[in-house]
Amino acid sequence: MPELPEVETTVRGLKRYLDGARIERVALGRPDMRFPFPQGLVQALTGATVTGLGRRAKYGLIHTDRASTLVFHLGMSGRWRIDPSDEAKHDHMVIQTSGHRFALHDPRRFGFVDLVDTDALEAWPPFAAMGPEPLGPDFNAGHLRAALEGRKAAIKLMLLDQRIVAGLGNIYVCEALFRARIDPRKPAGKVSRPALARLVTAIREVLEQAIGDGGSSLRDYAQPDGELGYFASRFDVYGREGEPCRPPCPGTIKRIVQSGRSTWFCPRCQK
Ligand SMILES: [Zn+2]
């Protein structure tokens, strides 16, 4: 499932080929993905020039010179194929520029796109109540302290709350809590100031490392299938139940369930 680093990697990959390009043709393979394609999407994009790309949480943003932005979400299985040599069954939207073809491919169709006035992006419903970007300047220990003050819910669950911090998913929350040596079950309001400072650093590090790994796999970008390179990160705890913790810790990685989702952690390292 694409998380923030995969979306960032995707946006950077698309940017190299799409930024500044004029969209010559848009084709939809079906009327909907998770949601119906917006009315007038093809007309709105055809002939438009891409003026920039960006990301907010796990959403990719393709800005155009028509004051509108194509927002995409990759859902569970979405990815962009660039210059695919074949026409695949699950290419639901294809954008053609003078030099390249971009196909939004999503077999499970949990992904979706929307067309939003660029000036009104911050008020777009999924963005309206969203917390700061974890890699941006507004995400810091002071913000976390204020947002978590008095909260009794487990710190792990609070970090998955998009109103506290935007775009963090299960993998990177588990990894960051391990690096910051914080017990995922600890009531959020009880996490100490130094631990919150470690947490901010850890969140940034795990995301940046994953983006870096993704960036390097983009060298293989122009594969015949044109698939953007996702990457297999080396996780310290995620998916490692029963395996040994990192040396010199003699502990074993444990899995628990919090609000219906797995959490992996080391009970010896994380207090
Ligand atoms: Zn350990």
Describe this structure in words.
This protein has 271 residues and is of the alpha+beta class. Helix content is 27%, strand content 21%. The protein is built from 7 helices and 10 strands. The protein has helices at residues 4-18, 41-45, 125-128, 141-148, 155-160, 170-179, 193-217; strands at residues 23-28, 50-56, 59-64, 68-73, 79-82, 91-97, 101-105, 112-117, 254-258, 261-265. α1 crosses α7 and α6 (170-179) crosses α7. It starts with a helix and ends in a 6-residue tail after the last strand. Bound molecules: zinc ion.
Helix/strand class: alpha+beta
Query: For the residues shown, what is the average pLDDT?
Result: 91
Bound molecules: zinc ion
Percent helix: 25-40%
Order of helices and strands: HEHEEEEEEEHHHHHEE
The oligomeric state is single chain
**Terminal Cα separation, in Å?**
29 Å
Q: Name the overall outline.
A: elongated
The rounded Rg comes to 20 Å
Which residues sit in consecutive blocks of at least 5 with pLDDT less than 50?
216-232
Counting DSSP H or I runs of 4 or more residues, the number of helices is 7
Strand content: 15-25%
Query: Strand order within the widest sheet?
Result: 1-6-7-5
Largest sheet: 4 strands, antiparallel
Number of strands: 10
What would the keywords be for this entry?
single chain, 271 residues, alpha+beta, four-stranded antiparallel beta sheet, 7 helices, binds zinc ion
In short:
27% of the residues lie in helices and 21% in strands. By secondary structure, it is of the alpha+beta class.
